[in-house]
Design a protein that fits this description.
By secondary structure, this protein is an alpha+beta fold. Helices cover 45% and strands 19% of the residues. The strands form 2 sheets. The protein has a 6-stranded mixed β-sheet with strand order 9-1-10-3-6-11. Strands 5-4-7-2-8 form a 5-stranded mixed β-sheet, with no helix packed on it.
């Protein structure tokens, strides 16, 4: 599998929530951070989305937003509108005037991911993916989200696995666009690295054979670059050295395996590229602050 597929495989997105969000007149709301991934697509009208002290983002009909880890944010119709505190809910939301036809409509929701590796995996994505309607991807995502909403409210056999698969499709579609060569700028993370043919080639090789004894020199050769130039470009794109990335990915695979059931340390160590269970246990404790067995018991409780 390619690195994106590996990433989604460990995230295990599930339990989609889709709800209509409407508004009329002047309105504003602020929400505390809740960490879980969220998405929204504007169906009618415009609004503004703002995170902390950052500049507001104007959202128009057809715009799609994917936030891998949702921080505190405000949503409002006008800059001067009062922003009232609200709690996240899985129920329909109405902003502003309670009576009358809504002049703003949005489909919003979220999904759950496996918490075992959420920190590392979300760190590999940009803080926000914003696909504007005029960039040609809004309609495709709107159809996917419409199916998610339809399945979420229908009482059909097999509803839950269908929702999970549709959610995975939505994630892949958003990431596919974000990683495309014609997409807007992404400052850091796996999306940026996958746009770079040299770095993409290296990431695919590391993910394809995580047990290999990769070196910076060997990876640089694979990228077709000098050692120093490769190291700088990799760090700029992913925020860590190639060897640190490999170690982090090995630890992510280890945490996933330990959380899913009983596996011998000898087998796990060999599967992810360590010479012995002892070497793996030492590395695991250094990265996670506990032994593999302690982690497995905690994740399974």
């Amino acid at each position: 599998m390619d690195p994106f597929s590996d990433l989604i495989g460990l995230l295990r997105p599930h339990a989609a929530v889709s709800k209509p969000i409407t508004g009329r007149g002047r309105w504003g709301a602020c929400y505390r951070a809740y960490g879980a991934p969220g998405f929204a697509i504007v169906l009618e009208g415009t609004c503004f989305l703002q995170f902390d002290e950052e500049a507001p983002i104007r959202l128009a009909a057809g715009d799609f937003i994917l936030i891998p880890s949702t921080p505190a944010f405000s949503l409002f119709s006008h800059a001067e509108a009062e922003r009232l505190p609200r709690e996240p809910t899985d129920q329909p939301v109405r902003h502003g005037e309670a009576e009358g036809e809504a002049d703003f409509r949005m489909l919003g929701g979220g999904f759950q991911i496996d918490p075992v590796n959420a920190g590392l995996l979300l760190a590999l994505l940009p803080g926000i993916i914003h696909i504007r309607a005029d960039e040609g991807e809004g309609d495709r995502l709107k159809r996917i989200i419409a199916l998610i909403m339809e399945e979420s409210v229908a009482d059909r056999p097999g509803r839950e696995p269908v929702v999970e698969r549709l959610l995975e499709v939505m994630l892949v579609e958003a990431l596919r666009w974000g990683g495309g060569m014609d997409a807007g700028p992404v400052t850091s993370g796996m999306l940026r690295s996958m746009r770079d043919p040299s770095l993409a080639r290296v990431l695919r090789a590391m993910h394809a054979d995580v047990r290999a004894r990769w070196t910076v020199e060997g990876l640089a050769k694979l990228a077709g670059m000098s050692r120093s130039a490769f190291a700088v470009r990799f760090a700029e794109a992913l925020g860590m050295t190639p060897i640190d990335y490999l170690a982090q990915w090995r630890m992510a695979l280890a945490r996933d395996a330990l959380s899913r059931g009983d596996i011998s340390l000898e087998r796990l160590a060999g599967d992810i590229g360590y010479e012995s269970a002892s070497a793996f246990s030492t590395a695991f404790r250094r990265h996670n602050g506990c032994s593999p067995r302690e982690f497995g018991r905690s994740a399974g409780s």
